[in-house]
């Protein structure tokens, strides 16, 4: 760690300083976080124990839900605790761990969304070769690469964060530790580090978003040749995927592809992709997906039937 570091802890200013509003923040985010964990756990359990959801799309959805739970857990519990406490202190090491967790699971979400788009592309544009291309072993290897890629990205963020010397003040104008708010506190010229941050996180967000939008455009374009029934099913799946992609990447691109300036809406935008998207994902994927809904119903019927015996 950096030798000039004299700051051993930071104070998170959170979303608001008003005690009344803090109680509201606590209630709202407790509902969101509980919904995120329950919703995503429901998807994980359903996919794990349901025979009808064995396709690669659900294999990837399993990991998206897992990343969602971990991603929001790296932020929400801390935010909830801070909303009720007088002094919102986070130690230097905890802060660095939060940066690491935020980026490894956030990056994992990005990679899984790309894999889901690739899966839909092969399923719709190359249906005959789909079983050979998207074999189980291939899907497992792709997920392993996604974890490795996320880990490398997160390590790069941590290396940048550890290079920053902090000699006071130690007030972070945010509800979690991330590189942008930390750059403002560093007692050094952060121009180069911000450039590296934009070229790392910013490039991952922008290029992934572009790649995803192009792939979905190609998929939707190729649906012209499908039957009405096939087109309807594929459209339903793709629109839910596109919704998730826009909700997640819009705020990410806004946060990570710009010079180190602060906007008043920064925290709200961050709330959207750190708390909002993990909460909405299970809703979007289950409400728009008949297979998942049926599998959930079947599972609970089996559970209730076995209990009543």
TrEMBL record:
Predominant place of localization: membrane
Bilayer topology term: Multi-pass membrane protein
Domain of life per record: Eukaryota
Subcellular location: Cell membrane; Membrane
CDD domains membership: 7tmA_OR4A-like (cd15939)
InterPro entries, per database record: GPCR_Rhodpsn, GPCR_Rhodpsn_7TM, Olfact_rcpt, Olfactory_Receptors
Domain G-protein coupled receptors family 1 profile: 39-285
Chain ranges passing through the membrane: 24-45, 57-76, 96-118, 138-162, 201-223, 235-256, 268-287
Family to which this protein belongs: Belongs to the G-protein coupled receptor 1 family.
PANTHER family: OLFACTORY RECEPTOR
Annotated protein name in UniProt: Olfactory receptor
């Amino acid at each position: 760690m950096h030798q000039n570091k004299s700051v051993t802890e930071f104070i998170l200013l959170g979303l608001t300083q008003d005690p009344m509003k803090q109680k509201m923040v606590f209630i709202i985010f407790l509902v969101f976080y509980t919904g995120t964990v329950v919703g995503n756990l429901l998807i994980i359990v359903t996919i794990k124990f349901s025979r009808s959801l064995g396709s690669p799309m659900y294999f990837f959805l399993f990991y998206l839900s897992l990343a969602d739970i971990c991603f929001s857990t790296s932020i929400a519990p801390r935010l909830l605790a801070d909303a009720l406490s007088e002094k919102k202190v986070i130690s230097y090491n905890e802060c660095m761990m939060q940066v690491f967790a935020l980026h490894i699971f956030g990056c994992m979400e990005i990679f899984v969304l790309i894999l889901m788009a690739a899966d839909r592309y092969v399923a719709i544009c190359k249906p005959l070769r789909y079983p050979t291309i998207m074999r189980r072993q291939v899907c497992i290897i792709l997920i392993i690469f996604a974890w490795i890629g996320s880990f490398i990205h997160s390590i790069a963020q941590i290396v940048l964060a550890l290079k920053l010397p902090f000699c006071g003040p130690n007030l972070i104008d945010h509800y979690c530790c991330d590189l942008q708010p930390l750059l403002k506190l560093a007692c050094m010229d952060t121009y180069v580090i911000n450039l590296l941050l934009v070229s790392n996180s910013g490039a991952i967000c922008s290029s992934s978003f572009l790649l995803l939008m192009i792939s979905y455009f190609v998929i939707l374009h190729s649906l012209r040749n499908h039957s009405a029934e096939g087109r309807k099913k594929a459209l339903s799946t793709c629109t839910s995927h596109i919704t998730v992609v826009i909700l997640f990447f819009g705020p990410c691109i806004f946060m990570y592809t710009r010079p180190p300036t602060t906007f008043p809406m920064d925290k709200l935008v961050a709330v959207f992709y750190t708390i909002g998207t993990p909460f909405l994902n299970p809703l979007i994927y289950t409400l728009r997906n008949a297979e998942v809904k049926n599998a959930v119903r079947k599972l609970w019927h089996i559970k209730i039937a076995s209990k009543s015996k």
